Amino acid sequence: MISKHCRLQKAQFGKLAFFYLLFVIFYLLFTLMTAIDKQKIAILLDIASERLSSGYHTAEKEYLFTDDEPKERTADTIEQIAQEIKVCRNCPLWEKRTNAAPGEGVLQPLVLVIGEGPGEDEDRQGRPFVGRAGQLLDKMLDSIGLSRKTNCFIANVVKCRPPFNRNPYPEETAACANYLERQIALLKPKFILVMGVIAAQSLLQTTDSMKKIHGKFTEISVGGMRIPLIATYHPAALLRNEEYKRPAWEDLKLLHSKF
User: Fold this and answer.
1) Per residue in 93-110, pLDDT tens?
2) Which end of the chain is less congested by CB atoms within 10 angstroms, N or C?
3) Where are the beta strands (DSSP E) in the chain?
4) Rg of the chain in Å (alpha carbons)
5) Cβ(144)–Cβ(187) under 8 Å?
């Protein structure tokens, strides 16, 4: 009876030791440790091992541990951010994507163009603004001397296509916010041109309509920089409603007057 009780206690202790060992492994993987920390964990592991084998604890051993050195963080790059975006699973949009669309254009652009999110064509190609709306955007930019090939970078507030081209949800834009902020900080654009009310509301933290947002500059702060931002109607909206073309053209002329 006593032997059976001892075996039960030993089995229970074994389970506890196993889970403790898992905890220690994860702790070691993700935590910088001093030599003293390592010595304490080694002693605990020794005790657990001895209890499981003989049931007795012997004298503590001395280990020649050293303090962990912090790993040098590699500098952020646009390409590094793009690679992170392509494998991102921060929100459910990744589940149905074909390709994420991190962004494209020149580094240190005169203008950073920010849209809402990829559509069907963008999802297929992994590039922003390449469908009908993208073709119209290129013409709009060209009309004021801008191009993704020479002086612009084009991105979106979400990098994966929302199902059926619906508007991105707030939690989806929030999941991508860090990528966009890092892109802005690296690109250091002179101006930001926002296409569409969803992107404008996200960047300006407002619920105002495009009618109220467009037609003026607002400065936003990113990475210690103050960047002039102007918002206008999304090219897809212009394709659906020609009434928006005149105010959109006025917005582009206002942007052009500043450079």
Assistant:
1) 999 999 999 999 999 999
2) N
3) 104-105, 111-115, 152-156, 191-195, 217-222, 225-232
4) 28
5) no
pLDDT, tens digit (0-9, with 9 covering 90-100), for 49-66:
776 666 666 666 766 767
Q: Which residues on adjacent β-strands are paired with residue 155?
A: 114
The residue behind tokens 């905890």 is: 23
Q: Are strands 111-115 and 152-156 parallel, antiparallel or unpaired?
A: parallel
Using a CB cutoff of 8 Å and minimum separation of 24, what contacts does 227-230 make? Answer: 227/184, 227/189, 227/190, 227/191, 227/192, 228/190, 228/191, 228/192, 228/258, 229/191, 229/192, 229/193, 229/194, 229/203, 229/204, 230/191, 230/192, 230/193, 230/194, 230/254, 230/255
Q: Which residue has the higher pLDDT, 140 or 35?
A: 140
132 and 7 part of one domain: no
Q: Report how many domains make up the chain.
A: 2
Q: Say yes or no: 84 and 141 in one domain.
A: yes
Strand residues in 82-237 grouped as ranges (E): 104-105, 111-115, 152-156, 191-195, 217-222, 225-232
Range of the domain at 130: 78-256
Phi, psi of 158 (to 5 degrees): -120, 145
Q: Are 127 and 172 in contact (CB under 8 A)?
A: no
